[in-house]
Amino acid sequence: MIASLKKLYDNRTSDKFATLTLPNGETIQFPMYSGSLGPDVIDISPLKKADLFTYDPGFVATASCSSAVTYIDGNKGELLYRGYPIEQLAEKTTFLQTCYLLYNGEMPTEAEFQTYRAEITRHTMVTQRMADFMKGFDSAAHPMAVMIAVVGALAAFNHEWTNVKSSRSRQKSAALLVAKMPTIAAMSYKYSIGHPFMYPQNSYGFAENFLYMMFATPCEPYRPDPILVKALNRIFILHADHEQNASTSTVRLSGSTNANPFACVSAGIASLWGPAHGGANEAVLKMLNEIGSPDNITAFIEEIKSGKSGRRLMGFGHRVYKNFDPRAHVMRNTCHQVLEHLKLEDDELFRIALELEKIALEDEYFVERKLYPNVDFYSGIVLRALNIPTTMFTAIFAIARTIGWVSHWNEQHTDPEFRIGRPRQLYLGSKKRDLK
Ligand code: CMC
Predict the structure, then answer these.
(1) Are 147 and 398 a contacting pair, CB within 8 Å?
(2) Could you list the residue ranges forming a coiled coil in this record (predicted)?
(3) C-alpha span between 400 and 388 (Å, rounded)
(4) Distance CA 43, CA 18 (A)
(5) Is 6 helix (H, G, I), strand (E, B) or coil?
(6) What is the pLDDT of residues 309-368, one digit of tens each?
(7) Domain with 56 in it: what CATH number?
(8) Does the Cβ of 37 fall within 6 Å of ligand 1?
(9) pTM value?
(10) Atom of ligand 1 nearest to the CA of 277
C-alpha cells in the first residue's frame, strides 16, 4: 500500500537545470525534475527571489503538484490509474476494486477488498435528517444543484470525520463520500419525480445498487439487468479519475486551505457541473436531439466551424488528448453492446452520433485542431439507453469522480510540499489614484 507521497519523492530525479536570462542580464537557474513517466518539469520557485511570476492562463503549461495517482499521455492516448491501463481496468475490475486501487495505490487482495467493500456498504444510507433536508428543494431543481448543497452539508452530520490531519479520519471521510454519493444522487432524482426514496441494498454491487435506488419502487420487486449493470460499472471506472482536471484541481485548491473533505468535494461537484467539463455528456445529448436527423449534420458542422454561433461540437476535443481519448474507445464498444442488448441498434440518436463522428473526423477543421470524440460523446447515449434522465448524467459523473477527488485530496495531505494554493496575476487595472 502506498503510504504517502513523501516516500515517492525518491522517484523524482533532478540532475538537469534550465537557465533564464532576464532583460538586465541576470540569470536564474531552475532545477528540472524527471518523474517516473512523462515530460520533465521545470521548478520555477527560484523566481520568487526575483519578484517575478510566470503567466499561464488556463494552466496549459503548468504542473500544479506532484502526484502518483493517474498518468495521461495525451499524444499516445494513454490513461493509467496507478500504472494500470484504463482498458484493462474497465474490462477486468469492478468499480469498487478500482476505487480501492486509486485511493491505496495497489489492487486489493481478496481479504482487503472484503474489508473495503464492507466499509463502503456500511455507510451507503444517509440519516433521516438528511432526507428531510432534501425536502427543502424545489422539485424542478437540477440534481447537481442538490448534490452541491447536500454533499457540503455532510460535514454537518459527520463532524467526527473532519480532522484532515489524521490519516484515519481522511480514510473514513473518503469512504463515507464514495458510499453516500450514489444514495444522494438517486434521492435527488426520486425527489424530482415525487417518488419515495429507496434505501440502498447493501447486498448489491455498487452500480447495481445505484440502478436499484434510481428505478425500484416500494410496490414491486426490481433487479437491474446485469448487462446494464456492467455498462454502468464501466462508465464509473472510466470517469473515476483524470489527473489534475478542473474539478480535481478545485478539490485540491480547496483542500490546500485545510477545508474539510465534504466542503472540498462539494466544490469539486460545482466545478464538474460546467458544460466544458462534466456537463458535456448532458450537452451532447441536447446537441444530438437538436440536430434531430442525419440530414442536418452537415449544416450543423458548418455552423460550428463558422464560429458565428460561438458553439462547440460537444463531446469533441480535450485539453490533454491530442490523438484519441482511450476512454472514448471503451465507451464506444460499450455503447454498441448496450444498444444491441436492448435491440436499439437503430436508435436515431446513436445513428446521428455515428454519422457526426464520421464527418467530423474527416473534416479539415477538426483534423487540424486534433479534435477527437471524448468519453462523453458516447457516455450520454449509453446513459440514455439505461433510462437515466439527461439531468442525471453529470450527477453520475460526480458519483464516479468522487474517488478520484478524495484520492488526490488524501495524497495532497501527505505531500511534503503541501501549502495553501495561492496563484498571482498580471494586474491590468487602474494605477493608484485618489478619491476626489
Ligand atoms: N468544437 C469545435 N471547436 C473546438 C472544440 C469543439 N468541441 N474544442 C476546441 N475547439 C477549437 C477551438 O475553437 C480552438 O480553435 P481556434 O484555434 O481556431 O481558436 C481550438 O479548437 C483549440 O481550442 P481550445 O479552447 O484552446 O482547447 P482547450 O484545450 O482549451 O479546450 C475543451 C478543451 C474540452 C474544453 C474543448 O475541446 C471543448 O470545449 N470541448 C467540448 C466540451 C467537451 O466535450 N468537454 C468534455 C471534455 S472530456 C470530459 C472531461 O474530462 O470533463
Answers:
(1) yes
(2) none
(3) 15
(4) 9
(5) helix
(6) 889 999 999 988 988 899 999 999 999 999 999 998 888 888 898 899 899 889 999 999
(7) 2.20.28.60
(8) no
(9) 0.93
(10) 52
Choosing from 318, 325, 408, 413, the catalytic residue is 318
User: Which atom of ligand 1 is nearest the CA belonging to 272?
Assistant: 52
Domain count, the chain: 3
Separation of alpha carbons 96 and 84, rounded Å: 15
For range 208-214, the mean pLDDT: 98
In angstroms, the Cα distances linking 350 to 262, 330, 339 are 37, 16, 9
User: What domain range is 263 assigned to?
Assistant: 94-235+242-275
What pLDDT digit, counting tens, does each position of 80-94 carry?
Answer: 999 999 999 999 999
Query: Is 316 touching ligand 1 by the criterion CB < 6 Å?
Result: yes
Query: Are both 263 and 290 inside the same structural domain?
Result: no
Query: Residue 335 burial (CB < 10 Å; 0-12/13-18/19+)?
Result: buried
* Per-residue H/E/C for 352-398: HHHHHHHHHHHCHHHHHCCCCECHHHHHHHHHHHCCCCHHHHHHHHH
- Whether residues 203 and 331 share a domain: the answer is no
Q: What is the pLDDT of residue 1?
A: 56
- pLDDT band (50, 70, 90) for residue 232: very high
Question: Do residues 251 and 155 both lie within one domain?
Answer: yes
**One domain, residues 214 and 307:** no
